[in-house]
Design a protein that fits this description.
There is one protein chain. This protein is 21% helix and 27% strand. Strands 1-5-4-2-3 form a five-stranded antiparallel β-sheet, with no helix packed on it. It is an alpha+beta fold and 312 residues long. Helix 3 runs antiparallel to helix 4 and helix 3 crosses helix 7.
């Protein structure tokens, strides 16, 4: 419960999480700690006339941007033709078999070496660390969702988000890409009596070349134990005490829903799965939206108009 409230606070504040560091009473002997030799991000021998010296590896946040810069440097040189050089690379120390076929957008440390194939000498090495990957597996570090209430797609997605706080502000992007694209496997039929273990595989239907915000696939695990629904659904007008959500970042459905939860359900976060599966956001405008229970919902009925302001 405390963790979920903390996550919601992060979402509404949109500020970095500060971690407390406790000093150790026993200071280490720094002289006994082995220090590896420094890695020089760009090393060049030969390639006379090519201005690699002005390149700063920190200027490139993707492998593609680095490759483009290198090719531009070679453009007006004896090495401008593709056949004039051989390019090889490693990813976290492992040889990349085919630079053209590999996914070089993933988080990793890459080392690329370019060697001259002509009579003029040339050998250049570039080391770049990528930390901005949008592959889903590079963004979901906690894959154990613990116990959930059902195996609906929305339940899986919201559990992934709340287990990985870095994704809270990207809930819409995750839903856009993975909703209805989750494969569930359980070791038995989910029931009301005992937890059943299972896995969920999230698979993007969009090619990485089409550049969705998130792409790729990942498998997460969980246990599921069904909850018994109430005898009668609750009218939304009796639970939505604060229909004015205040200032919100945008009017996308999951953004609005998150603020509905923050303003009205903060003491009922044990019902998070039921909330996201039984409430609909429709007709969003620049300052309002409709909140209603889904058709035949056993939890919520009726509808209510929400008000908000979109931050500039």
């Amino acid at each position: 419960m405390k963790k979920l409230i903390k996550v919601l606070a992060i979402f509404i504040a949109s500020t970095p999480v500060m971690l407390n560091v406790t000093a150790c009473s026993n200071e280490p002997n720094w002289n006994n700690i082995p220090i590896p030799p420094p890695q020089i991000p760009i090393e060049v021998t030969g390639f006379q006339g090519v201005d690699f010296a002005t390149m700063n590896i920190k200027d490139y946040d993707t492998v593609a941007s680095l490759f483009s810069a290198i090719k531009n440097k070679l453009q007006d040189s004896p090495w401008k033709d593709k056949t004039a050089t051989t390019w090889t690379g490693t990813k976290d120390g492992k040889v990349i078999a085919d630079l053209n076929a590999s996914d070089l957008k993933r988080n990793a440390q890459y080392t690329f070496e370019i060697k001259s194939n002509i009579t003029l000498p040339g050998d250049a090495k570039f080391i770049i660390t990528i930390t901005s990957s949008h592959h889903i597996a590079d963004n979901i570090s906690v894959t154990n969702l613990n116990q959930i209430d059902d195996t609906n797609d929305k339940t899986i997605l919201i559990a992934c988000v709340f287990k990985n706080m870095n994704l809270v502000s990207k809930i819409n992007e995750i839903a856009d890409e993975y909703l209805n694209h989750i494969a569930i496997k359980t070791d038995g039929k989910p029931n009301y009596d005992r937890p059943v273990t299972g896995t969920a595989t999230l698979t993007s239907p969009t090619s990485a070349k089409q550049e969705p915000y998130f792409y790729g696939s990942i498998t997460v695990n969980f246990t599921v134990k069904l909850k018994k629904s109430p005898k009668n659904p609750t009218d939304l007008k009796s639970v939505i005490k604060v229909p004015d959500l205040g200032i919100i970042p945008d009017n996308r459905p999951y953004t609005i829903l998150m603020y509905v939860i923050i303003k009205n359900f903060v003491t009922q976060l044990d019902l998070l799965a039921e909330i996201v599966n039984n409430l609909n956001i429709t007709n969003p405008t620049k300052d309002s939206a409709e909140l209603s229970g889904v058709k035949d919902s056993e939890y919520y009925s009726g509808h209510i108009t929400l008000k908000f302001q979109i931050s500039k």
